[in-house]
Amino acid sequence: MSNLQFQDFSLGANEPSQASGSQGLSGRIGDSPFTGAGAESRSVPGKNFFSFQYYQQYFDVDTDQVVSRLLSSMVPRFGSNFIVDHVQPIPDLYGPFWVCVTLIFSTAICGNLARYIATSGDVLNNDYSSDFRLVTGSSTIVACYVILIPFALYSLLWYRKSEVQYSYLEIMCAYGYSLTIFIPVSVLWVVNWPLFRWLLILVSVILSGSVLCSSIWPAVRNDRSRMWSLMVVGSVLILHALLAIGFKEFYFDVSHPARTGEKVPPDAELPGTVTTAVFSNASHSEAVKSILSTTIHGEKAVKKSETRERKRNLISHEIVTNKSLETEGLGKIS
């Protein structure tokens, strides 16, 4: 018993090898479609998938993580993968949610401001009113872009059985943060200079689109069809550009309506031709009114004369009848 020795065995002896093996692009086929390879460390036992407590884990991020992801989504780096370097293994929904909400309101507010600036000083078009439909329209566009396109992209990667499988939340997180650059751009779009607006679109699409393409390319580059891989990455960039162009065209470029039916201020001085036309129209309407009134009075006079004539005929007929009766009565008496 005196020669007994105790030796400690560490339970985490295999952790370095597991950690080194987990460093890579993402999980393989068979991982959780919503959480990816990091689902085991972030799973919430006993929580329903449709409960708020389940999604609370995706809002558990600190300020440093959110700021780092915001900046990294706008500034591409050579050889960097946004999903691997900044999103995994903890994708969040807090940053994308507030990015989308801020973009919706900034686009609507700045779009109304741009329309107000473009229509100010126009005497014939001074009845400006804000359009709340810009808020609902931009919210629909942003929601469809952040929710539907990542789902379609995740479905394509799953269907093609790509070697690298990003989870749906990882792709949606990347797409949500990729809209960050459009928030300051929407403010600068207020400047009513078409060339400057197109330059902003070009710069913003190249910067944020490069971040998205560099994240999606590792998942499709080893596909059996290189053409399909290029089409996927090209579609990502084209859809990103269409979103920016749509914001510019429908929210900031003001199309002046036709001049028909516009209001003229009461103190505005009209040209001579317009004044003559107004007076001629007024005299014409008065003439029409006088003709109508004369016609109506004439019809009434005719009716009155006809009525009087009928009464006279009736009276004369009664007189003749009475005389004939009197004559017959006198003849019988005699």
TrEMBL record:
Transmembrane regions listed in the UniProt entry: 97-118, 138-159, 171-192, 198-220, 227-247
InterPro entries: Yip1_dom (IPR006977), Yip5/YIPF1/YIPF2 (IPR039765)
Domain of life: Eukaryota
An annotated GO cellular component: Golgi membrane
Localization per record: Golgi apparatus membrane; Membrane
Membrane topology of this protein: Multi-pass membrane protein
The entry's keywords: Membrane, Transmembrane, Transmembrane helix
All copies of domain Yip1, residue ranges: 91-245
Pfam families reported in the protein's UniProt record: Yip1
Similarity comment: family membership: Belongs to the YIP1 family.
Protein's recorded name: Protein YIPF
